[in-house]
Amino acid sequence: MHTPESTKPETSALSDQAAKPPAEQTPNSITVTQTENDALAESSDDPDMKPSTIDGGSAAWLVVLGAWCSSFCSYGWINSVGIFQEYYATGPLKDYTPSQIAWIPSLQIFFMSFLGPLMGVLFDRYGPRPLLLVGSFMHVFGLMMASISTKYYQFMLSQGACSAIGVAAVFIAAVSSVGGWFDKRRGLAFGTLATGSSVGGVVLPIMITKLIESVGYGWAMRTGAFLIGALLIVCIATVQRRSNISTQNRVEKGALGKPFREKVFVLLMIGLALVPFGLYTPITYLPTLAIRASMPTNLAKNLVAIYNAGSLIGRLSSGILSDRYGRFNVFVISCYLSGILLIAMWIPGTSDAATVTFAALFGIFSGAYIALVVALVAQISPIEEIGYRNGIASLVQAIGSLVTSPIAGAIIERPNGVLGVKLYSGAFLLAGTTCILFARLVRTRWQLKAVI
């Protein structure tokens, strides 16, 4: 993060700082150089684009509010997929294996991520409003169609495809808009908006479960769609991109391959491709595995909500801490602790109390992943490329998001499958975090104490 002295409004001062050769930087200066402000300073001489003017205000926090609603409706919904896995397995899709059923939420997560680069380019070119309008309609329409679905292919098309495409548009448009409004408080901004998915992950599983029991699956889904539709109206009304960014400095076709020539970006993307293999498996299978271990069904169904309650704490706290201690630092430490929990606590912990404790702690430590991924990308990106690069990050995460639940479902059905799936999750999460650690080390030229 830049100190106040490094954010002088004069263009010449910014230019001099950007032109300073790396050899002249002191070890301590690594905490304030080569961050997102350098990209801002180099991209434009417009006074409105200066770093000192990009750090909040009422309009900025209204954008965060809208992005919070987007987060609730997108990843808040995705974080609730565990309840559908169990419901489908015992209800309309009881003739299908857990691996086959897992393709529904996996396809949903995949579309959300796979379409990221396209949505990012559209955002950089046209701004957030068209994406928000079309995406909101598709998300709500898909959920409405899921409420009347009875066949496997119908669930795949409505919940797995249509709703997910809408979510991809809404999430990329809203979250990418936030980066242009903040600088030194960017971690807090992204951490705050990321709590939306945690709140959604607490409210939606409990709400949908109770409604399924009282009014049936159809009206449970429709009620969820009505709630999501109302929040997306707030999102459409409040999310906007800074006007001085919307008409200039957009990513050009010739720059589309530029991120892949940057070592830090490539290492970060490799890590983000591996982490979802370990992260999404516990989210999806916590209730199912707990029931197999003789946990009462009602308690097991609340594990997703417990996880998301912990994640709410983790996302907000990691955002605050990252602005002080460095976003890469907080992200790497939190993800390592999440991986250690998978190995050291999820495997031996078979009692109800141990499982509930694991769900809460895993939510707290893994919360940094959702809270800070976009902030990490923004930190190493020029502001005019944030939408496109966020899209690339979503795409690489789609690999693990698509296949991890079916793979985990297949592992569970094998001898010693419960142990195997827990080892599988922990190994991938730790491996992905290690790649991101290397990205951080390359960024700081291997200085372990750097704040980045």
From TrEMBL:
GO CC annotation: membrane
Record key words, sorted: Membrane, Transmembrane, Transmembrane helix, Transport
Domain Major facilitator superfamily (MFS) profile: from-to ranges: 59-444
Molecular function via GO: transmembrane transporter activity
Annotated TM spans: 59-78, 101-123, 130-149, 155-175, 187-207, 219-239, 260-279, 299-316, 328-347, 353-378, 390-412, 424-442
Region of interest called Disordered, as start-end residue ranges on this chain: 1-51
CDD domains registered for this protein in UniProt: MFS_MCT_SLC16
Principal subcellular localisation of the protein: membrane
Entries under InterPro entries matching the protein: MFS (IPR011701), MFS_dom (IPR020846), MFS_trans_sf (IPR036259), Proton-linked_MCT (IPR050327)
Biased composition, class Polar residues, residue ranges: 25-37
UniProt-listed Gene3D superfamilies: MFS general substrate transporter like domains (1.20.1250.20)
Topology versus the membrane: Multi-pass membrane protein
Entry similarity comment: Belongs to the major facilitator superfamily. Monocarboxylate porter (TC 2.A.1.13) family.
Protein name: Major facilitator superfamily (MFS) profile domain-containing protein
Organism from which the protein derives: [Torrubiella] hemipterigena
Lineage of origin: Eukaryota, Fungi, Dikarya, Ascomycota, Pezizomycotina
